Amino acid sequence: MRATPVLTTSPPSSLQNKTNSAVQLKHIPTGIVVKCQDTRSREQNRKLAREHLAEKIDDLLNGDNSRSAIVARIKARKKASAAVKVVKIQEIRKG
C-alpha cells in the first residue's frame, strides 16, 4: 500500500488548499486507488481512506459475500418488508 498526501480539490477550497490534508492510498497488488478529503486532518483522512480501501478490497475479493453486499441485502429486505406492511395496513383501513 502506498500513501500520498495531495491537495484537496473541492469547490470551497480556499481554506483546504493551504494544507495537504487529503490522502490518496493505492493498493499495489490490485491497483485500487482511494482518495479521501472528508476532514481537515490528514490523520483522520488516512484512517477513513484505509476503511474505504478495505471495503473496496473486500468487495473485489468476496463479491456477493462481502460485508457491504450483505448489508445492502439486509436493507433491501427490510424495505420490502416495510412496503408489505404498508399495503396490509391500507387494505385493513379500506376493508
From TrEMBL:
Question: What Pfam families does its record include?
Answer: RF-1
Q: Where is this region: Disordered?
A: 1-21
Q: Which UniProt keywords apply?
A: Mitochondrion, Transit peptide
What is the protein's given name? Prokaryotic-type class I peptide chain release factors domain-containing protein
| InterPro entries hit by this protein | Mito_Transl_Release_Factor (IPR052405), Pep_chain_release_fac_I (IPR000352), Pep_chain_release_fac_I_sf (IPR045853)
Q: Which GO terms describe its molecular function?
A: translation release factor activity
Localization per record: Mitochondrion
Q: Where is the Prokaryotic-type class I peptide chain release factors domain?
A: 17-79
* Family annotation (SUPFAM superfamilies): Release factor (SSF75620)
Name one process (GO BP) from the record.
Answer: mitochondrial translation
Q: Name one GO cellular component term.
A: mitochondrion
**Which branch of life, at top level?**
Eukaryota
- Its transmembrane ranges are none
Transferase is among the record's keywords: no
Identify its protein family: Belongs to the prokaryotic/mitochondrial release factor family.
